[in-house]
Amino acid sequence: MLYAVIPVLEAYAAARGQIAALGRGGGLLTDFGSTLAEDLAHLVPNHFIALYDQCRLPDLVRYIQALATRASRGAVDLEKDRVKAAGVAQVTRRLNALLNTLSPETSEQKRRALEALFWMIEEFKVSIYAQELGTATRVSPKRLEEKIARSREWHEKGKWEGGGGKGENESQN
To answer: Is 151 exposed, middle or buried (0-12, 13-18, 19+ CB in 10 A)?
Structure first.
C-alpha cells in the first residue's frame, strides 16, 4: 500500500506548489488558486488512504496531475479556464443534487452508482484540462448527461432500493 500512496503524495505536493504560486499573482489568480486548493482538498482529503481503494490510487495521481495542469494553464489564460469550468460546474451541481438524496437507508447500489458518476466527472476533468494525460474510460458531456439522467430516473422510480436497473455493473461507456 505504501508504494501506491507515495506517487499520490508526490503529485499532491507538486500540485500544492503550483496552486500556491497562483496566490502570489494576486487578484483573480488568487481566487482561482483558492478554488483549486478547495478542489484538491476535496479530491485528496486527510483520510484519503482509508477512503479510496488501492486500485483507485493510480487514477487519483492522474486527477491530481490534471488539477496541476489546470493551474498552470489557468495562470496563462484564466478566461479559457472559466469556460471549461462552467461545463464541469454544471455536471458537478447535478451530481451534488443526487448526493443530497443519500440517507442512512440508501442502498449500496445507489452509493456505488453515484461514486461511479463522481469518478466519471474526474475523468471528464482530465479530458478537458489535461487531455494529454489520457482518460481511463471514454467520457464526454453527452455520456455524463446520459449517466446523470439514468441516475435521476432510477432515483425517481425507486429502483435504487430494491434492485431493478443495472446500477454499477452497467458499462460507463
So the answer is: buried
